[in-house]
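Bug #77: duplicate submission created two jobs. Keeping one. Sequence:
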Amino acid sequence: MPATLRGAARVLPRFRRRRDPRRARGARHALSPRLFPTPLWALALATGLAPRGALANSSAPPDGMTGAPGEGTCHACHGSFPLNSGDGLFTIAGPELFAPGHTYTITVTISDPGQSRWGFEITPLDQGACAVTDPAHTQLSSSGGRSYVKQTSAGTFPGSPGPVSWSFDWTAPVPSPPEVMFYAAGNAANGNGLTSGDYIYTAAFAAALDAADVHGATSPGAPLALLGAPNPAPGSVRIRFELPDAGHARLDVLDASGRIVARLVDAFAAAGRHELLWSGAGEGQRPLPGGIYFCRLSAGSRTFTRPVVLLRAGGGL
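Kept job's structure:
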């Protein structure tokens, strides 16, 4: 028997021997909250009886729980409800376009009716540098070459009905890729100190390299530029693209299997910037289901693809 349990076994019999025999009928209440005001989950933890992962990580979630490729989510422990199944809203806000070496503010916001404690974790997927600007409520960690920003214990805002937000600075890498993806998971907790009764959400956000900032708006030979906003999108998506040279252009929307579900442009286009509004519909103007899609721009021998996430009613993809 572990030492902690042996100690507990010795204490309780001594307590019973001191009791008045005339009150033996109350023996079954020896562990009532009136006599032991410490919550039972805390007693279980002290004696090693609490199951692994039974208590929430209010000080910070472990690294690698953002839902990014190759990562899990907080749902691995907080699994009372299906992922993204609550009535809440979880978003990432940042720059639609970025320039190499420039610094931008990234804000994560979560809300869920009836919940009262909050957490998050976000990573810019190996690209750029993150800096904490609110050390009381956010902290920075790193693992496997990735940086993570997450809440502190005070940053769970216990008792707050929400919504709550956290912000930090992100500096774009030099040189920069055409696109940087941010992945995040959020926890809308009920404040019971355990992992039960919590709703877990995930979100993704794409920031695109501003080709005009690097090459000039119509510089011949510059790479293609493509941006869809908002992303994720609950409805229509405003798509902007840039062509370095005049010529035939084609803009397709593909589903996750690579099948073309919508063709938005298939015509000659002048050099420079272009903009259109996609309703989120496929062939026959039928609304596409929620999920991850890919806008693919082709011009000449060059192709550029970026993901767009469609959201549908109920908070799911």
